[in-house]
Automatic annotation (TrEMBL):
Residues 5-252 form the Thiolase N-terminal domain. This is Acetyl-CoA C-acetyltransferase. Belongs to the thiolase-like superfamily. Thiolase family. Its EC number is 2.3.1.9. Keywords: Acyltransferase, Transferase. PROSITE patterns: THIOLASE_2. Coiled coil: none annotated. Residues 261-382 form the Thiolase C-terminal domain. GO terms for molecular function: acetyl-CoA C-acetyltransferase activity. The active site is at 89 (acyl-thioester intermediate), 339 (proton acceptor), 369 (proton acceptor). InterPro entries: Thiolase, Thiolase-like, Thiolase_C, Thiolase_CS, Thiolase_N. It is an enzyme of class 2 (transferase).
Length: 383
C-alpha cells in the first residue's frame, strides 16, 4: 500500500473566550495557518490537490465551506478546491484521515489539512441547540426512530461525563487534581518554549492564553455546571476557545518530486462508533481496535494525545488501557489549552508530532471522543 507522510504541522495559539483572537473572522483565522503552511514549504501553491478542513457549526462566519474560503482568503490559487468535514469534535482528525486516505489511494499527492473554530463568535452547537439549555439537551427527542431505539435517555455531554466518573469510580477531587496537572504541564511547556516550533503567532499573540495558574482550593469552590452532575465543574471540563491548525500531507512521489523531508508516516487510521448515550467512551474501544489492527501494544506507544473533553474521559481511558499518565498529554490538554472543536484534531496532531520529535519517541497515538458516541484513532511513526 502507498504511504502518507506528514511534512509539516503548525497551529495558531489558543485564544481564550473573548480573548486576543475573538474578533478575527473565522475565514481569516483559517487563512492564517494555511498561508503559513504554504510559505514554510517549497511546494508551489498551485500544486496542492485539495484542502480539507474540520469545522463544527458551519453557520455565520464559519459558513460556506470554510476550507475553500480560508484558502482563497489567504490569497492562494483559485484552482485548488477545498471541502469541510464535520465529525463533531473529531472533525479535523477526520480531515487528516481523509487526506491520508486520498494519498494512500494514489489519487492525490499534496493535501493541506486542518481545522478552525471561533467559539467566541459561534458558541458550541449553536445551530443544533438554538433555544436549548446548555449541554446537548436532547436535540433528538423529536425523532420517532431515535426514541424507538434509545427511549428518553438524555443525550447530554455533562450527563455522560458524570456517568463515566461514577462508573469508573473517579471522584471530583481526583478530576480536579488531573485538571490542575493539565494547567501546570501547559504552563511549563510554554515557559520552556516547548510549543515554539508549532505555533505561528497571530494578532500579536505568540503563546496560548488559555492555561491558568490555579489551585485545588480554587477548584473546590466552583459550583457544578448543573446540580444533576455534582462532580462536573468548569475546572474539570475543556475550555472553549478560538484557534486554527494545519498540516501538510504528501505521497512518496511528492517527497521525491519536491525533495522533502518527512517528519512522520501515517501508520494507522481507525474510526469507531459506540453508545451515543454514554457519548464519550468511544476512545476506549477505538484504541483497542487500532492496536489490534496495527499489531502494536500500548507499550509500543511513546506518547498519547487524547482530548480532555472532561477529566473523567481521559482518566477512564487510561484505566481501561493501563497506560502511563506520564506519557499522556505531557504538555497539557484541552482543560488547559482549550478545545476549539473543529480545530482540535489538527491541534492535537501538531502537538503530538512536535512532542515525539522533542522526546525522541517513535510511535504516537491520538484519539478523542466525538458527538454521537464516536472516536477516531490515528497512529503516527516519527521519521
Amino acid at each position: 500500500m502507498a504511504q502518507a507522510y506528514i511534512v509539516d504541522a503548525l497551529r495558531s495559539p489558543t485564544g481564550k473566550r473573548k480573548g486576543s483572537l475573538s474578533e478575527i473572522h473565522a475565514i481569516d483565522l483559517g487563512a492564517h495557518v494555511l498561508k503559513a503552511l504554504v510559505a514554510r514549504n517549497v511546494i508551489p501553491a498551485e500544486d496542492y490537490d485539495d484542502v480539507i478542513f474540520g469545522c463544527v457549526d458551519t453557520i455565520g462566519s464559519q459558513a460556506g465551506d470554510i476550507a475553500r474560503t480560508s484558502w482563497l482568503a489567504a490569497g492562494l490559487p483559485l484552482t485548488v478546491p477545498g471541502t469541510t468535514v464535520d465529525r463533531q469534535c473529531g472533525s479535523s482528525q477526520q480531515a487528516l484521515h481523509f487526506a491520508a486516505q486520498a494519498v494512500m489511494s494514489g489519487t492525490q499527492d499534496v493535501v493541506a489539512v486542518g481545522g478552525v473554530q471561533t467559539m467566541t463568535q459561534i458558541p458550541i452547537s449553536s445551530a443544533m441547540l438554538a433555544g436549548q439549555p446548555l449541554g446537548f439537551a436532547d436535540p433528538f427527542s423529536g425523532s420517532v426512530g431515535w426514541r424507538a431505539r434509545f427511549g428518553q435517555q438524555p443525550v447530554n455531554q455533562f450527563y455522560a461525563a458524570q456517568r463515566i466518573a461514577d462508573h469508573w469510580q473517579i471522584s471530583r477531587e481526583q478530576m480536579e487534581a488531573f485538571a490542575l496537572q493539565s494547567h501546570e504541564r501547559a504552563l511549563a511547556a510554554i515557559a520552556s518554549g516547548r510549543f515554539a516550533r508549532e505555533i505561528v503567532s497571530c494578532q500579536g499573540l505568540a503563546v496560548d492564553e488559555t492555561p491558568r495558574h490555579s489551585s485545588l482550593a480554587k477548584m473546590a469552590e466552583l459550583q457544578p455546571v448543573d446540580p444533576q452532575f455534582p462532580s462536573i465543574t468548569a475546572a474539570v471540563s475543556s475550555q472553549t476557545c478560538d484557534a486554527s491548525a494545519a498540516l501538510l500531507v504528501v505521497s512518496e512521489a511528492a517527497l521525491k518530486r519536491y525533495d522533502l523531508t518527512p517528519r512522520a508516516r501515517i501508520h494507522h487510521l481507525t474510526v469507531l462508533g459506540d453508545d451515543p448515550i454514554w457519548h464519550l467512551t468511544a476512545p476506549i474501544a477505538a484504541t483497542r481496535r487500532a492496536l489490534a489492527k496495527s499489531g502494536l501494544s500500548m507499550g509500543d506507544i511513546d506518547r498519547v494525545e487524547i482530548n480532555e473533553a472532561f477529566a473523567s474521559v481521559v482518566m477512564a481511558w487510561a484505566k481501561e488501557l493501563d497506560y502511563d499518565p506520564a506519557r499522556t498529554n505531557v504538555n497539557g490538554g484541552a482543560i488547559a489549552l482549550g478545545h476549539p472543536l473543529g480545530a482540535t484534531g489538527a491541534r492535537l496532531m501538531t502537538t503530538l508530532l512536535n512532542e515525539l520529535e522533542c522526546s525522541g519517541g517513535r510511535y504516537g497515538l491520538q484519539t478523542m471522543c466525538e458527538g454521537g458516541g464516536q472516536a477516531n484513532v490515528t497512529i503516527i511513526e516519527r521519521l
